[in-house]
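Hey, can you fold this one?
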Amino acid sequence: MADNEDEVVYGTAASDAPVTRADFERAIRSLNMSDLNLRDGMLNIAARLVALTDELTRRLDGVEPLPAEPNTPAKPKEGTVEAAVEGTLDATLGTIHANDAGTPTRVSLDLGPPKYETTSPMIPCAELIPLCGARCCTLSFALSTEDLDEGVIRWDYGQPYLIRQRASDGYCVHNDPDSHGCTVHQHRPRVCRGYDCRKDKRIWIDYEQRIPAPAPQGKYEDKGKGSMFDLLERAKARAFVIKREALSISQSYADQAPHKGPKPVR
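Sure. Predicted structure:
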């Protein structure tokens, strides 16, 4: 480090300086976006292949629906195979995305609206915790870009972006092991805010009679694949969320403020 304050160089942290959690997670999010983009690219190629195969089959076998009209001097491109493929590509891609939305993915993101706009059901959680043991906090679900940007809610690095859980009892890492209360209640995810346990058989045999369900045998999973959307709507929502995540990463910065470091070795 330079003796004179004026000689201190900014932005030159030591090469062996520890990486912050925020910077580490930003790098992982970037890698996960590459994974999502690669997956979507492959689905686009698959859609083109299916559309091309369908069009060639129609032209060669004469099956319904009828092939595109032959080229004419007035419309030279309308009868081409390429034009026919382009004309059906969106519908084919939509079908593939819809089917893909129902399969497990390596990267999961919450598809819902902003969490601070989510209304919570009128459930006396504090009163019920001694009965149910906050069993909802053992459910596995995906976080949103909003959660990732805030950096408060922890996620599982091995299963992005599922809520992080303890191996000892299966509870969310933010759940107090003694009281089973939420230690980050103000920042809790959208899924937690909007969740209604009253008719969930994993939690209650009879909510009205306050009869809890038996203790779980294994890990509960809820990755957001309920009836909130049909498959096609889920595919559209997923595309929107991926764009929002990519924008969030691109608009973030590796360094939030200037820092002093050692002068570079010349």
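The helical segments are 21-61, 81-101, 125-132, 145-150, 190-194, 231-250. Let me know if you want another pass with a different chain boundary.
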